[in-house]
Amino acid sequence: MVEPQLNCGWQVQQKPPLLTRRFDFGAYAETRKFLDDLAGLSKSTGYYPDLSFGKTHVSVSITARDETLGEADFDFATKADALAGQAP
Amino acid sequence: MVEPQLNCGWQVQQKPPLLTRRFDFGAYAETRKFLDDLAGLSKSTGYYPDLSFGKTHVSVSITARDETLGEADFDFATKADALAGQAP
């Protein structure tokens, strides 16, 4: 599988398969909006990544749903980039 | 200072001073409600702890606002317990 073009902030780890990225924001309101948008994305995709956040940052950890990272995982990452306004 | 009675799920670490607890829930809707309630608590107190969460769990990390853990830190923890319905 060809990995899609992701923002260079994403770290791809194969063992165990994990896709992670930290997003930084200028203000809490932006952090909050991103979290709310991610919740919507989770609802529509049925996938709930592990999230860590503070006042102005959010880290997203996407674990592979299959044995290796696949299209659904990279798709979630791409959509998260878009929601954050931080696509490539 | 006498530490208030916290749910035994809280871990108190003095160096660096940190108060952490993991809350587990039966469903995503409960997780979401707790996160929203915590956001309200942060807004009213002006304090934003680091939070990590997945579909059915939330970890709260309260860093000491002064050099050691103080009343404001334990107060936030107590209020988080109450919001989760998991007080002592």
Structure description:
The structure is a homodimer of 88-residue chains. Chain A has 88 residues and is an alpha+beta fold. Chain A has a domain at 26-81: Gyrase A, domain 2. Chain A has two helices and four strands. Chain A has helices spanning 28-45, 71-84; strands at 11-14, 17-24, 50-54, 57-63. In chain A, strands 1-2-4-3 form a four-stranded antiparallel beta sheet, covered by helices on one side. In chain A, a hairpin with a 2-residue loop joins strand 1 (11-14) and strand 2 (17-24). The longest helix of chain A has 18 residues, at 28-45. The two termini of chain A are 20 Å apart. The mean pLDDT of chain A is 89. Chain A binds chain B through residues 28, 32, 35, 39, 48-55, and chain B through 28, 32, 35, 39, 48-55.
**The CATH architecture of the domain at 26-81 in chain A:** 2-Layer Sandwich
DSSP E strands of chain A, number: 4
Mean pLDDT of chain A: 89
Percentage of helical residues of chain A?
25-40%
Low-confidence stretches of chain A: none
Q: Under the CATH scheme, which class of the domain at 26-81 in chain A? A: Alpha Beta
User: What summary fits the major beta sheet of chain A?
Assistant: 4 strands, antiparallel
**How many helical stretches of chain A?**
2
Oligomer: homodimer
Termini separation of chain A comes to: 20 Å
Order of helices and strands of chain A: EEHEEH
Identify the overall geometry of chain A: globular
